[in-house]
């Protein structure tokens, strides 16, 4: 397994370079590249030792050793799971690529982005992590085919600029503090875990890191550019925006901010709880008023991240496992929504909502699949709680209150989806129908239903699927609690 992680990391870029020598067959080439990368990620999963909590398959090579900069990569249970999902999303992204004159460029951008995303998940040196973090900017920007709003472009670059500055300054300060405490110049993220930084410096650095990471996530108040980009971009660009970008941000918080500043997690819990509640309330109002199918998918996609950010800040072993495992049904369900969006676009040749009147009459299979997918999407977090034995129905504990909180907003948002379907797809239109409406074929219906059934079955096997994550997340939580005690004892 020597050099295996490096091979896994840079293979997509090698495939992207290979596109220079192709003149046709780009889509097939993309499927081959994405499938090989997914197979390698699954091979890594089966070779991974679930009994070990720390990093495995580590590789380290000096770049500028006197300044602590080295190429250091590794994988643990947390990053392994996200690596597999990233390769799966890339394969889905190839499917959603539009077969037009820009297909070759779009495929190259997608494969390069896969390397960059994997680089964030595998990097153990802050300097290398920062490079991959910044490299996301350019291919992501150009993967959005249409920027009809100047405000969105300005917001995009402004958000990335602020994120870059906050991250660069924070990493610089942390490296300086580490040097003062140890007399060693190091950008190793693992080395930084040993730092003991007292408030208010620790709280300021923690806040800066969290904001820097969340600036790339479609959250209030950071998503002014995200919604415009999502609505105007290709399906693949939109998929990357609300899937891998969210995973990257949350992984960065969990891998970098939490272990270095665990006391900041406690201090920011109440603001994050309020923050999540505001997001969910906003989604409730937005979905009830929305008239556009693609925007409904966008608002649905924020529900899981709003819960996950709250679950992470509670620093509970089971909740962290649930948070990470939720990414799989999240990606699968969003993928089905994008599949439906692709099909309705193909059949109606328009994103204009008025052309979707009468849809309930002509496309009942389509609507049935959309409603089933939405129901399961909002149900899964509750099933995870139940299967993990997290709920104490005999007492009004914090766990029970958290489940009630999640379940309430899940119900409200699902009702909002039903209202959208009734008010739009069942609405009558005066005059004759301008399009020939074709429903989903049996094959187009059965395959997504099989995926949904698989998600439901997986939700009842929580303990099995959390095994690769459990050791690493438990070790992380234990480390954080011990470090919080150390910081508090020093402050006293």
Q: Proportion of β residues?
A: under 5%
Number of helices: 23
Average of pLDDT: 85
Number of strands: 2
How do the helices and strands follow one another from N- to C-terminus? HHEEHHHHHHHHHHHHHHHHHHHHH
- The global form is globular
Give start-end ranges of low-pLDDT stretches: 350-355
**Biggest sheet: strands side by side, in what order?**
1-2
**Structural class of the helix and strand makeup?**
mainly alpha
Largest sheet: 2 strands, antiparallel
Oligomeric nature of the chains: single chain
Q: State the helicity in percent bands.
A: over 70%
What is the first-to-last residue Cα distance?
Answer: 47 Å
Cα-atom Rg, whole angstroms? Answer: 23 Å
Helices and strands, with pairings:
Blueprint: H1 4-18, H2 26-47, E1 56-64, E2 69-75, H3 77-96, H4 103-122, H5 126-135, H6 137-143, H7 150-182, H8 189-192, H9 201-214, H10 224-232, H11 235-241, H12 244-260, H13 262-289, H14 293-301, H15 303-313, H16 317-325, H17 327-348, H18 359-362, H19 364-387, H20 398-425, H21 442-459, H22 462-465, H23 467-491
Antiparallel strand pairs: 1-2
Keywords:
23 helices; 492 residues; mainly alpha; 73% helix; two-stranded antiparallel ribbon
Concise account of the structure shown:
With 492 residues, the chain is mainly α. Helix content is 73%, strand content 3%.
Describe, in plain words, how this protein is organized in 3D.
- The chain is mainly α and 492 residues long.
- The chain has a domain at 272-492.
- The protein has helices spanning 4-18, 26-47, 77-96, 103-122, 126-135, 137-143, 150-182, 189-192, 201-214, 224-232, 235-241, 244-260, 262-289, 293-301, 303-313, 317-325, 327-348, 359-362, 364-387, 398-425, 442-459, 462-465, 467-491; strands at 56-64, 69-75.
- Strands 1-2 form a two-stranded antiparallel sheet.
- A hairpin with a 4-residue loop joins β1 (56-64) and β2 (69-75).
- The longest helix has 33 residues, at 150-182.
- The protein starts with a helix and ends with a helix.
